[in-house]
Write a structure and sequence with these properties.
The complex is a heterodimer of chains A (483) and B (361).
Chain A (H helix, E strand, L loop, with lengths): L1 E3 L13 E8 L2 E8 L3 H17 L6 H16 L4 H14 L3 H13 L3 H12 L9 E2 L5 E5 L3 E5 L9 H9 L3 E5 L7 H12 L7 E4 L6 H8 L4 E5 L2 H9 L6 E5 L3 E6 L6 H16 L9 E7 L6 H18 L7 H20 L4 E4 L6 E5 L13 E7 L2 H8 L6 E7 L2 H14 L3 E4 L23 E5 L1 H8 L7
Chain B lengths: L2 H13 L5 H18 L1 H9 L16 E2 L2 H4 L12 E4 L10 E4 L3 H16 L6 E5 L10 H13 L5 E2 L1 E2 L2 E2 L1 H14 L3 E6 H14 L10 E5 L11 H12 L6 E5 L8 E3 L8 E3 L4 E6 L12 E8 L8 E11 L2 E7 L12 H12 L1
Parallel strand pairs in B: 1-15, 4-5, 4-8, 8-9, 9-10
Antiparallel strand pairs in B: 2-3, 6-7, 10-11, 11-12, 12-16, 13-14, 14-15, 15-16
Helix pairs in contact in B: 1-5, 2-3, 5-6, 8-9
Classes of the chains: A alpha/beta (483), B alpha/beta (361).
């Protein structure tokens, strides 16, 4: 099977070099042809996108853009639509994730970008979405308008299928020309989305580009970054630092580095009935995309003193993961990943010799691992791919002490607690650096309008233009109708 | 069986030409029974794996201990203070060093000597040696320092010399030595850590110097680069070695050893890389699937497990972090298993550890 990744505006007939990336899963093979533009071609693309979006995209009202996106989402949510079918068929091979997991994931993901959700998304960030269309009166006097950049360059990661949508759609909502660089790990979805958009509104044809180069390509990154107003980058801190080095100082950089997330379970949820439910939801968050997302939990802190002990809870989670392993099998791991998995697990097994209370649970095939730690002994990252620690704690202060040194890496906390505890814990978690608190079972599907890493999706992209009240009053005297 | 009896039986085995599967098995099971009995953390580890002297029927069933365990546990059948020598790993991560206790070095030494004669010296008995590594006095806990000391003491001529001290490579003395070796016409052997050779290359390149060592000269490198020098590809390494010193690649032997073992592996030169590595008849290697522990079919990549009868006091069978593939006559070493890089936005363990170091400093 051969697929063509990327999307290019019209830059003439010159031939475009391509590279073929090959993906294989359970004997199925997909060859993905990605466009590799020369620096000169990239320059043409940037110019074209800038020009076309200034002419067309900027002339659309935000309501029109939302309508467009809503129509694209309706198509993507329609399981008979050829693009949806293609996504369901090809993405599991490319990413390695289980077909059912991808299918369900796509549906719940696309649902967050329908009209009502996008409206909420806008209001969340801008209060008055009309700010993107016109000067709007300010309560303090004067008027303001939000102006999106001419061109945003996105450097996307490929860990979770279709993930580029967040930043792609954010950019469109602020009426910015879009250049996206896809990752070699999942180069397809962003290009499909661009093509669908253009099918729905052909006038968008030259406002978008989805390209590829090998991450860290100095020459190309310099060239493209140099012409961007904003660069949005996803990746490890090391690769983000590299990117930043290639940016002119006047270009705004919005880096989304790697993050760590975790769960927190209160004793109030640990009775025989509720504990099973919580364990099921915790296991769901672990299973989803094999913990590759920044919102995926690395560990769960479980409070002592409930009628189900943290150790029993760990066994519940193990059981649930075992069930999920059958329903949504883990993606095939490379030998390197398996070795990393094995070595993480062995280290934990050795730890059992030092502490008999500790427990390492897993099946023979190594599909998942649950480690039970009887006490807090330092926050640690999991080797991912369905490996998790369950750590017992008495008081929230222990957890806070443990996570506090890592504040720059913290993101989501999945919390199972009573309403009173939820707010008390949220207060402390927030102070420690956590930026998102959600229900267990929801860790991997953020709400529309969430504040990614504590930031504003849209507000960070735009710049505000103020007409101060003085200017307004001053102008009055120059009106032709002045008496 | 007492420790002494075991040592004697092992020395006998080592001195024989070969061992049958049966003999190997017998020795391995004997050592397992002894270690299960006397090495308490190991016994606990075996029990955790559901293995006892009764369920272990062949050497392949012996639970393999991950090399990390040498950092976390005291793996010794005698109290550690009774050890004649403790070899320690270099301790690159977190500064915790793995410890390998040797109550007596007779088995280690015999293992090294018999194997070294066969694989490196071949028909020669003595050769003039230059050692690119510190002496045993300087690094008493380094198994490599001891190994090289044995090489010099047993197989080196009187005038063999060390060229590395606490200040690093003594380049001027080494160059004078190489010059002399070149002129003497006598075969010369240069042995040391792979990274020391890289330092030598850098100096030679700077000075625009090359040598043509006499025929019969040979080189032994070991241990990889360990962040002590720049990383080099195998082909580049042996090409450079050969062009700077005039020793053909087939005479450049790589020794693969570990602090956690008492026996070394060698190749028969590095004309092509990766070269086939093999060990003597008292060590056996399996290539396993990292997650299930099952043996990989011949020709498929997996993780190496060594069963070394020389390890009479610690554990015979260790699970390495090295990737390899079984071939005719041995295995190909494909390098260390690197933590696979996370492709997305969830932090990977390696990155987290780096970051954690950054934040705690």
């Amino acid at each position: 099977m051969r697929e063509y990744a990327g999307y290019l505006p019209c830059i003439g007939d010159e031939p475009i070099e391509t590279r073929v990336l090959t993906f294989e899963k359970n004997g199925e093979r997909v060859e993905v042809e990605v466009p590799l533009l020369t620096v000169e071609q990239l320059n043409k693309v940037v110019r074209k996108v800038k020009q076309a979006s200034a002419q067309f995209l900027k002339s659309l009202s935000v309501t029109e853009i939302i309508d467009l996106l809503d129509r694209v989402m309706a198509q993507l949510l329609d399981r008979r639509h050829p693009y949806r079918q293609k996504a369901e068929q090809v993405l599991p091979i490319v990413t390695g994730y289980d077909e059912e997991m991808v299918r369900l994931g796509l549906t719940s993901y696309f649902k967050t970008f329908r009209k009502p959700q996008l409206q909420r998304f806008l209001v969340e960030d801008l209060e008055n979405p009309l700010l993107l269309d016109d000067f709007q009166p300010r309560a303090k006097g004067g008027f303001s308008k939000a102006v999106g950049p001419d061109v945003i360059v996105h450097v996307w990661a490929g860990n979770v299928p279709a993930l580029p949508l967040w930043s792609f759609i954010s950019g469109l909502l602020v009426k910015s020309g879009m250049i996206g660089k896809v990752s070699s790990a999942e180069p397809l979805f962003a290009g499909w989305f661009a093509r669908l958009l253009v099918e729905v509104e052909p006038k968008l044809a030259d406002c978008l580009a989805v390209v590829w180069w090998k991450g860290g390509d100095v020459e190309r990154e310099r060239a493209v970054f140099g012409q961007a107003d904003v660069v949005v980058g996803y990746g490890s801190n090391a690769s983000l630092e590299e990117m930043q080095r290639r940016l002119p100082v006047t270009t705004r950089f919005l880096p989304f580095g790697h993050k760590v997330s975790f769960g927190l379970i209160s004793r109030s949820c640990l009775d025989a009935r509720k504990a099973w439910q919580a364990a099921h939801q915790a296991a769901f968050d672990i299973m989803r995309y094999d913990q590759q997302g920044c919102y995926s939990p690395h560990l769960f802190y479980v409070q002592t003193g409930g009628s189900v002990s943290p150790k029993e809870f760990a066994r519940y989670v193990a059981h649930e993961l075992n069930c999920f392993a059958k329903r949504f099998p883990r993606r095939p791991l490379s030998l390197e990943e398996m070795a990393a998995q094995a070595s993480w697990r062995q280290r934990e097994e050795l730890g059992v010799l030092a502490n008999k209370e500790k427990e390492v649970l897993g099946n023979e095939a190594g599909d998942w691992t649950v480690v039970y730690e009887p006490e807090c002994r330092g926050f640690a990252a999991s080797c991912l791919n369905r490996a998790v620690k369950i750590v017992a704690f008495d008081d929230i202060s222990q957890v806070i002490a443990e996570i506090a040194p890592y504040r720059v890496f913290l993101q989501t906390a999945g919390v199972a607690a009573s309403p009173k505890e939820l707010f008390e814990w949220a207060e402390q978690l927030g102070k420690a650096g956590v930026t998102r608190i959600t229900a267990l079972g929801h860790m991997t599907s953020p709400e529309a309008g969430w504040h990614h890493d504590g930031r504003f999706n849209l507000r960070d992209l735009v710049q505000m233009v103020d007409i101060e009240s003085a200017a307004e009053a001053y102008a009055e005297q120059f009106a032709p109708y002045v008496d | 069986m007492t420790q002494q009896e075991m040592i004697e039986s092992l020395l006998q085995l080592i001195n024989k030409e070969t061992s049958t599967e049966e003999e190997f098995n017998e020795h391995a099971l004997m050592l397992f029974a002894y270690q299960y009995e006397n090495n308490v953390p190991y016994r606990t580890y075996c029990m955790q794996k559901g293995k006892t002297a009764r369920t272990v029927k062949t050497w392949r069933d012996i639970p393999a201990v991950p090399i990390n365990a040498f950092k976390e546990l005291t793996l010794s059948c005698v109290p550690p203070e009774q050890a004649e020598r403790v070899f320690m790993t270099s301790g690159t991560t977190k500064g915790v060093r793995g410890k390998h206790y040797h109550p007596a070095l007779s088995v280690y030494d015999q293992s090294m000597i018999v194997n070294f004669q066969k694989r490196f010296m071949k028909e020669h008995n003595k050769i003039k040696m230059g050692i690119l590594f510190p002496t045993e006095d300087e690094l008493p806990n380094s198994s490599l320092a001891h190994y090289l000391a044995l090489a010099v003491n047993v197989f080196g001529t009187e005038d063999s010399q060390y060229f590395v001290n606490r200040d690093g490579l003594d380049i001027d003395r080494l160059l004078a030595e190489l010059e002399q070796a070149e002129q003497s016409g006598e075969p010369y052997a240069l042995l040391g850590a792979s990274f020391s050779f890289v330092h030598l290359f850098e100096e030679l390149a700077k000075r625009g110097k090359t040598f043509r060592l006499p025929e019969g000269s040979r080189i032994l490198d070991t241990g990889g680069f360990k962040n002590q020098s720049r990383e080099m590809g195998l082909d580049e390494f042996y090409d450079t070695l050969s062009s700077f010193l005039g020793v053909p690649r087939r005479e450049c032997i790589n020794m693969y050893g570990m602090t956690e073992l008492s026996t070394q592996f060698y190749d028969d030169g590095n004309g092509t890389v990766p070269s086939v590595k093999s060990g003597p008849h008292w060590i056996r290697t399996r290539v396993i699937h990292p997650l299930t522990g099952e043996e990989m079919p011949k020709g498929e990549r997996g993780v190496l497990v060594h069963c070394d009868l020389g390890n009479f006091n610690s554990v015979t069978t260790i699970l390495t972090e090295d990737m390899g593939v079984e071939t005719d006559g041995g295995f190909l070493l494909l390098g260390r298993v690197q933590g696979a890089e996370a492709k997305g936005c969830s932090i990977a363990v390696e990155e987290f550890i780096r970051a954690a170091k950054g934040t705690s400093e």
